[in-house]
Amino acid sequence: MSELQSVEAALAALLEGVVAVDAEIVGCAQASRRVLADEVIARLDVPPFHNSAMDGYALHHADAGQRLPIVQRIAAGVSPQPIMRGTCARIFTGAELPQGADCVVMQEKVEVVGDAADIPAQVPADNNVRHRGSDVAAGAVLLEAGHRLDAAALGHLASQGVVEVAVRRRPRVALLNSGDEIVEPGRPLAAGQIYNTNRPMLKELLERFGAEVTFIATMPDDAEGTRAMLALAADQAEVVVTTGGVSVGEEDHVKNAIEEIGRLDLWRLALKPGKPLALGRLDASDGREVRFVGLPGNPVSSFVAAWLFLRPLMGALLACPALATLPTLSARADFSTRTGPRRHYMRVALNMAQGEVTAHAFPDQGSGVLSSCVKADALAVVPANAQVSPGDRIDCLWLRVD
Question: Which of 16, 131, 212, 339 could form a disulfide with 170 if both were Cys (CB 3.0 to 4.6 A apart)?
Fold first, then answer.
């Protein structure tokens, strides 16, 4: 397993045999960013009746070009009376179109003279009319299974009077870090110690990807303690994520522990940053097989690998296609670089001006430079053994997504 593996091979191994988590019923008020487990069928037509798209005057189109008496005033929420040919009604946006009318003339085009309205000529039928069911027809699929509930989707559900939905349960994730030199923020640093960058960063990303981080701990820097902590974490979660301890140093115990209490599918990938990344399975005490993702300790490597591997893993567990891949933008590079045998994921800022997308690479692409991740809009994907010059086209994975 010493040969460097591709990102595609790693993803295939990670997602092989993944089964979506079960469903639960939640209120729509608590369903933001949750993933639908079942399709939702529309109960009502939207709009529920023919209505006016403008403040104006409702009439039959054949009566346009005349002075028509105004026989009623129709506000939104009011049930209108039918109108006769040769008359019109004052109507407001969203109000139900009266029987006998088939168009609305916006008020700016009408001159009112006493109790009558001078209507311009040649008004077509259906002018400024929103027809019943033109947005949603009762019985049609309102939202597909696997849809992640954003603001518009929640509004769509509310338009049908839906108050609760079946969504995928959030996958339970255990988040572990290794390294006696790692100290939690709020404590003083001793010589040789650093603050725990990865824990809050990965917790936020995992929750953004739809997970529930249910177990957080630090693994001891010894083989037996690492093995015991991994076994405990496997009993608490569906996915175990670690940072650090997957390299080849004498104090890196995670890889050996995985091989003892589970199996290692892939180790060492052909990507930069993030080569020392391990993927495998852990055997829980109840017989379950728990996915394992061992991320590098360097914060940039963990950040990049989270987008490349943890996001699609959560997508598979949630049966959510939108999480499977990141949106790809084609951009022109404004930088030069040359890669070796590993594919490079470079942090870039994107400038979108004058119909062109330009990728600006941060000058220091080191795996410890987390400030570049704060400012990055995307990851520019530079193939292995390639050279990029200013003006060349490159694919960029968009990070400004939910």
Answer: 212
Q: What is the pLDDT of residue 190?
A: 82
- Residue 374 in tokens: 């704060």
Six-digit token string for 163: 């108050």
Using the predicted structure, report yes or no on whether residue 268 has a pLDDT greater than 80: yes
| Beta bridge partners of residue 353, listed in sequence order | 356
Task: Please state, as a whole number, how many other Cβ atoms lie within 10 Å of the Cβ of residue 298.
Answer: 22
The Cα–Cα gap between 141 and 383 comes to 41
Determine the Cα–Cα distance for residues 2 and 272; give it in Å rounded to an integer: 17
Distance CA 55, CA 112 (A): 14
Which of helix, strand or coil describes residue 207? helix
- Per residue in 282-323, pLDDT tens? 999 999 999 999 998 899 999 999 999 999 999 999 999 999
pTM for the complete prediction?
A: 0.90
CA gap 88, 62 in Å, rounded: 12
Please report how the helices 223-236 and 254-261 are oriented relative to each other, as an axis angle in degrees rounded to 10: 60
Distance CA 297, CA 243 (A): 5
Structure tokens at 271: 């990507």
Is the CB of residue 216 less than 8 Å from the CB of residue 175? yes
Statement: residue 249 has pLDDT above 60: no
In this structure, the number of other CB atoms found within 10 A of the CB of residue 222 comes to 12
Encode pLDDT of 47-74 as tens digits. 999 999 999 999 999 999 999 999 999 9
Categorize the per-residue pLDDT at 250 as very low, low, confident or very high, splitting at 50, 70 and 90.
very low
Pairing mode, if any, of strands 212-219 and 172-178? parallel
By C-alpha distance, which of 29, 319, 360 is closest to 146? 319
Identify the bridge partners of residue 177 per DSSP, sorted by sequence position. Answer: 218, 243
Residue 121's alpha-carbon distances to 4, 60, 61, 63, 274, in angstroms, are 75, 12, 9, 9, 70
Residue 256: its pLDDT value, please? 84
